[in-house]
Every structure is written in structure tokens, then in C-alpha cells.
Amino acid sequence: MGKKYVVFQIGEGHYAIPVTEVSQIIRYENVTDVPTALPFVDGIINIGGDVIPVVNLRSRFSLSTAEITRKNRVIILRRQDSRYGVLVDGVREILDLDEDSIAPEAASVFGMKAEFVRGIAKIRDHVLVLLDIFKVLSTAPEVPIKE
Amino acid sequence: MSFSGLDEQKLLRAFLEESEELLEKLNENLLQLERDSSNPDSINEIFRLTHSLKSESALLGFARLSELAHRLEDVFDGIRSGTVSLSRPLMDAIFSASDLIHEIIARISIGKNDEDVESRSVIRELKQLAGLAPKIGTEGYGAVAPDETERADEGRLVLGDFEYSQIMEALERGENIYRLTVTVSEEAELKYPRVYLVFNKLEMIANVIQTVPNITVPQEDQLYRQLVVLFSSELDKEEIYKACSVDLIEKLELELWDETSIQEAVSASRGEETARSAASAHTSSTSRIEGTSIRVDTNKLNEIWQLVGELTIYKAQLSKLHDNVARQKGNESIKGEVERASDSLERITTEMQQAIMGTRMVPIAVLFNKFPRLVRDLSRKLGKKVDLEIHGKETEIDRTIVEVLSDPLTHIIRNSLDHGLEGPEDRRAVEKDEVGHIMISAHQQGGQVVIEIADDGRGLDVDKIRQKAGISREVSEEEVVQTIFSPGFSTKEDVTDLSGRGVGMDVVATRIREELKGEVEVRSEPGEGTLIRILLPLTLTILHSLVISCAGYYYAIPVQDIDETVRVLEEEIVIQEGSEVYSYEGNEMPLLRLGPVLCGPSEDQHNRSRERNGVVVEQRRGKVCLLVDELVEEEDLVIKPISELLNHRRLFSGVSVLGDGKIIFILDTARIMEIIETGGVDAI
Amino acid sequence: MPYRVLLADDLYFMRMVQKEVLEANGYQIVGEASTGTEAVAKYQELNPDIVILDITMPEMNGLEAMRKIFEIESQAKIIICSAIGQQNLIVDAINAGIKDFVVKPFKPERLLSAIKNALAA
What we know:
The complex is a heterotrimer of chains A (147), B (684) and C (121).
Chain A: E1 3-10, E2 13-18, E3 22-27, E4 31-32, E5 41-47, E6 50-56, H1 57-60, E7 73-79, E8 82-88, E9 90-97, E10 102-103, E11 117-123, E12 126-131, H2 133-138
Parallel strand pairs in A: 2-12, 6-8
Antiparallel strand pairs in A: 1-2, 1-9, 3-7, 4-5, 5-6, 7-8, 10-11, 11-12
Chain B: H1 8-35, H2 40-59, H3 63-80, H4 88-109, H5 120-130, H6 148-152, H7 161-172, E1 176-184, H8 191-205, E2 207-212, E3 226-233, H9 237-243, E4 249-257, H10 259-290, H11 298-327, H12 332-360, E5 361-363, H13 365-368, H14 371-382, E6 386-391, E7 396-398, H15 399-420, H16 424-429, E8 436-445, E9 448-455, H17 462-469, H18 477-482, H19 505-515, E10 519-525, E11 529-537, E12 541-550, E13 553-558, E14 562-569, E15 573-576, E16 579-584, E17 587-593, H20 594-599, E18 611-619, E19 622-628, E20 630-639, E21 652-657, E22 663-667, H21 669-677
Parallel strand pairs in B: 6-8, 13-22, 17-19
Antiparallel strand pairs in B: 1-3, 1-4, 2-3, 5-7, 8-9, 9-11, 10-11, 12-13, 12-20, 14-18, 15-16, 16-17, 18-19, 21-22
Helix pairs in contact in B: 1-2, 1-4, 2-3, 3-4, 3-5, 4-5, 11-12, 14-15, 15-19
Chain C: E1 4-8, H1 12-24, E2 28-33, H2 36-46, E3 50-54, H3 62-72, E4 78-82, H4 87-96, E5 100-103, H5 108-120
Parallel strand pairs in C: 1-2, 1-3, 3-4, 4-5
């Protein structure tokens, strides 16, 4: 038995984060615009009275913007008492990953800097990048995530 | 087992068909479950199947079969809710039960019934292995176990002053007072919802004064076999009986109360109450010896706090509604009621807020109180003479901050004693008072607590710090001293080498910045002393704010920071040294257009009117006029911390959410003034 | 003229028994539904005198269907069928306006008596 991961897509890439970091997965609805935030902050979402910023991961990964479709999802992440939302192109599935199928990756993967990558897993025809999402969120805005 | 006028055979055939299908699916899922014991789909499916089987077999009178299915259902309910774990022995027992079910159904299909099948042992095994306690039939709302006194008073109404006044008001309105006793048929499986049906109907036509047992806080189901309701209504007995007719109610006894009965009931209750309070007074004096505090999980307090916050939002909504209603013509009685309700809600909410604040906030004295002793002991050990002054110890801080602050504060004071303050001779040599001074102070400012620790000692040795950190001569003294907070600044160097602070200050800073999301600064005068200031955000605050709008978004400014609001005329704005200044009635102060600052340079195009709204904010540094679009309202806002992602320019000290979902950013006035002062308007 | 009844329960077997009982006692079953959504749709279409609604149904559960039916007709007569542990759901439904509830497994006489009273009110 391994750990469960949420697998999502940004552009052509597939990424995975542990379910323990995920609070909810919701549709892109009721996202309120905020004026003074960073360019890749899409807006905020109000969940149970908490103001949760929604980060557009496509933007953050310096990819071209795409239209919002019904496939898009906002993954609400939770760390200690704080919650963050990330907008992804789609959530594919919840996957059980065996420790053995994960390879640690030191060098950069698909243009993603090594410091954000926890490991690589190969599932069927896809390569999954296990992402350190909180590192991505806490990196200074000027620093690009992808090379 | 016969139904009036039904074709039994047809029913039986259908039942057998259904159950065959059910059993097939059950088997499939059980096998799957054996392979993968944590599969939630199998668990849920089996739960559903056993549930259906239970219902269907009961309908046809196969009680044994139904019970067996019921036990299995309970087991799987427990498994899916996590209270029962699936062990190997339990799995075996489940398979045995399933086999038994097969057997029973086989017997039924050849014309026998389920009674001669031995199911007791399987059921017992299931119960044991799953650790299932017998169900009482209460679920949902927190069922409160009745204590002894309540059982004794079953059916007895307790009328206090409040109930008495309600009765009087009802009589004045020309209504009758009734006492209704509702008795539920023994055969009704759920007594509470049954009486609730009656209560629900009664509420439509009467004003309920009291219910025994209490109907809004459900207790054990059996207690509701009989419900007593005291109510007032203008209808007569017959009409009430008709309105309350509900199935499965054995008896409805309606009693009209006249003046005498009312008086009797009230004085009886009063007598009881005095007796009861005398008894409890006795017990409370003994409990006082043990202390009157309890430990409460801070998470629970947080929950309550969140709820109080939401209550504030709805209270505000109700106030608005009330204002709207008051403006309309007519509906006087409704207006009056809305006003009364609104006022009560307002009063209660404010009291609740204060009460809850009281549980979360503690005076900072709990921290400060240990310092006099610490200073006395340490100064004696070091051979120094030190006088400690404490100010603002009644300043309240959040309970959760206290623990985290303890070490850092102690550390700072130790440093001051160790390195900052000189010994008596050294002090005399530089013509200072022999006795060194340390001052600790705390006060609240906006949404923050400011804690300062100052001494009149040596001050920091700027050169040594410069040297150690490798900072060039060009960097100002003020900036150099801040480096003592940099991570890794203090090393294992000999402490006495570095006069002034530095040891461990980086750790202090980390704790304050990361754990408490606060800030720490230092100011130093060589030879004169050092001041360390800690700024902590209050995590849960209700802030009295002025809500303003700017370029279509809403912001709030803490009222305590506001000096006044003004109408600014275009001609009152002049340019001085490249910045805008507001000049009126001989006063001059910097002016800042919030639109461009908050929303981007193009935003000020929105409002080109000659006269604008200005908010004059005042801090210790002086006044500034902020130019906004509209002054919306004054409101008590529940402030929540704001994520860094939304606040990378640090213009906000928090965020608030209204009941209608509107988001309001709270402006950090101190920071805004800082920015203006340092001329950094363009930098933001 | 017989009263028109709509039955909603995801178990075919349940509906069959209810139908047998009610028809034998002079009621007319004008429709059956096996999901909440179907129940609401059939209510809209058939406008029965009373609805017998099971709480647990797939797609849309009984309580949601109940609410939607009340939106269509605020005076709708609804009797819900529940399991023993669902007290809080029953109370919610009572607050919403149902006429009565029957607890599963129930005897046919119980259903008959509940319907009779509900229709008489």
C-alpha cells in the first residue's frame, strides 16, 4: 500500500500532490476578483468565511493563459491553519502510488526546477511530477517556477 | 402474516426474486471486500444491500431474517463510519451470517419459514467482534442525558419571571393560557419526532411558553412519551384539538388555566426555585474551594469564536433590514417586533463577543509577571543594580500568543541585563545613574499589540556588528543594527566579545516572524541605550471600521486611526516638492489618492469630480489625507488574517468577509503612512 | 372519486407492496418514482393528492425532492418513509411541512392510517 495522490493537469504536464495536503476540490465558481494582488493570483474564494487566494498555476508556470472550461478545478490546499487555492486545467484522478514506483529526481524535470520536484512516477503512459506545491506557493513572485 | 386482501403468493414470489438478486450482489461484494478490506465502494454497497434486505424481509414478517440483516447492516454502518475495524475473525463471522441468510431464504423458497433457524449464535458473534453496543435510538443532535432532578420533574412546568411576564402579556392580548399534555402511543417507534409533529402544528396557532421535556434540545427518545406544553392562544379548546390532531397520538389533554391556576403554578415554581438555589448555593461554596476554572481545548474556543463572528455578520444584516422596514409606511406592529428582535440580538451578540474575547484574550501580565523576579535574581548574580518598570500589563493579548512569546521576551531581557546594562562602576564612569533601567511596555494599536523593551545601557556596538556581518561603511547605523535579527547572525562566539545584543536574537526574530506572523525592530544609541519593539497581529479581532470604496472595491480603515472625514475640493490640493499636499484652514498634510495606489495608475480616471471624500488618518508620526471614492458605512468587522499571496505589498493588515460574501481589505494605516513618509509612493 | 397517490422509493419491492396495500383500500396509484429527480418530475406532471416519499434514494434523496416539491406546491401533502436512526432528518422534514412520517419497516395498517389522517387534515 502506498500513499494517495491527487493527479492534475497543467497544460501538457501531469502533476501529483499528496491527498493529505488537499482540503477540497471544487469547480471554478464564485471567484472574486481582487485588484491589488499578484498577476498570477486569479482572485479569491470565500469558503466558510475564510478568504482563500486562488493561484492560477498556468500563469505561475509561465504558460499561456487558457479559457476556463468545465474541466477546470480549484484544489484547496491546507497547511496548518492556512488554506490556499490553486486553479488547474483539470483533476484526473486520485491515485495510489507505491513508494517503489517513485523515483527521486534531482535535476530539473520538463523545465520544472528541481527544488519544486519531490519525485517522478511513471503511470501507464504518463510521467507524473510529484510537486512540492507549498514551495511553489511560497517562492517569491519574481522567481519563475519553470525555466 | 397476512395483509388485508393481498395476494400473498405474489408477494412471496417477488420477495424471493429480489432477495436472490440481493444475495448474489452481496456475495460478490463480500468476496471483493475480502481481497481489499478498505474498499469504500464494497462497504457502502454491502451496507445498502443489507439495509434493503432488512426492510423487505420485515415487511413480509420474516423477523429472524430481518434481525440478521439488521445486525449485518449495523456492522457495516460501523465499518464505513470508522468505528468498527474489519478484522479477520469479524470477516469470518460476516461470511457465516451471509451463509445463514442464504440458508433461510432457501427454506422460505420451499415453503418453510425462518423461525426454526438458529441465528442467535451468529448474531452474538457479530455483536461481540464488532463491539456493537445496543442502540438507544438517539442520533443527530447532541442528545443530553437527563440528570436525576429532571427525571423527577417529568411533566412539571417550571415558571420563572420570564414565563410569568409572557403569560401576563398573553392575557393582556386577550388570549387564553392552556396546558396541553400529549401522550404518544406505545407502538410509535420514534417518540420525539411524533410529539414534534404536534408541536409543529401548535406553533402555527399558538405562542408556546414552555415545553417539558424541552422540545428544542432533544433528549432521550423515551422521555417524549409524554410532552407537556404551556402555551397561549386565542382559539378555543375545540379548535385547538382539531389543529393538533396527529396520528399515533394516544391522548391529548387540554386544560384551560384561569388566574388561580396561574398564580398557583407560578408560586409553586418560585418556592421550588428558592429551595433549589439554596441547595446549589450550598454546593457552590464547596466547589469554590476546588476552583472555578476548567480546561478548554483552544480549538473549541476557536469554533465558538468563528460562530460569534458569523453572528455579527447576520446581526448587521438584520440591522440593515430593520432600517429598510422602518422606512416603509405601515406595518407598525411588525416594525415594532423587528426592532425589538434586532435590539435584543444586538445586545446579546455584543455581550457574547465580549464574553468570548474574555476567554481568548489574557492580560499580558501573565507574561510580564515573572520578569521582576528574573531581573532581581540575575542582576544580583551579575553584580549590577537594575530597576525594572512595567507599563500596560493589562493589555490583552491572544491566549495562544502567550506561550510562544515567553521565551523570546525572557531572552531579550537577559541580553539586556547581561550585555546591555553596564555595572555600577562603568555607569558612574560615564556619568550615568548607578542604577540601570529596563522598561517593558505593551499597548494595543489598531489590529496589533506593540511590546517594547528598552534599557539605558551601552547600546549596540555598531562597528562590531558591521565587522561581523561584513557590512560596508556606507550602510546607515539604523540598518546595520537590524542585522542582529538576520538568520545565522549569532554564532558560538564568546558572548562577552560582542558588547550589546546579538546572541540568539536571530532565533527570537524567527519565532516572532514565523510563528506569530509579527515583526521585530531595534533602535540603538551608542552609550545611551537600546530599544526593541515587537509588533504582533491580533489573530482574531473585531474592529470598529469605516468602510470605504475605491474603484469599485471595498476597504476598511480602523476608526481609531481616523481623525476626521472631509470633503476635499480640487483647489485644496497643491503640489509641494513633487508630492501632493492637502491644504485647508491653515493645515497641511500629505495627500494620497488611494485609487492608483490600490488598483493601479489608471484607476483615478474613474472619479474626476471636483469634490472628493477624504479620510484624515492620524498616527504618532502625523496626519495624512487619503482620497477615496465613497464613504460607505461604519461597521464592526471581524478581521481575519490575510494571506501573503494577497498582500505582497503589505498594504493590508487583514481581511473581512461580510454575510453577503463581500470582501473588505483592512488598510494598514501605519504602513501606508510609512510609505508616504519615505516618499515611496511610486515604489508600491 | 379515489385519492391519487404518487409512490417514491428506490426499491421496486417496496413500491409493489405499498401499491398492493393502497389499491386494495381504495386509493389510486397514479405514478411511481425510483429516484428523487423522478419523484419531482412526476409530481409536477401528475399533481397527485399525496406523495409517499422514501428518504434514501439515489440521484436526489427524499429530503431534497421534498423541498423541490414544496417549491412547486407549498401545500403539498407528503408522507416520508424513514429508517430508525434518522430522527434529525425527520424533524427537518417536519419543519419543512410534511404531514406525517412512517418508520421502516412499517406495517401496512400504519401506512393506511397515516395517509387517511394526512388527507383528512
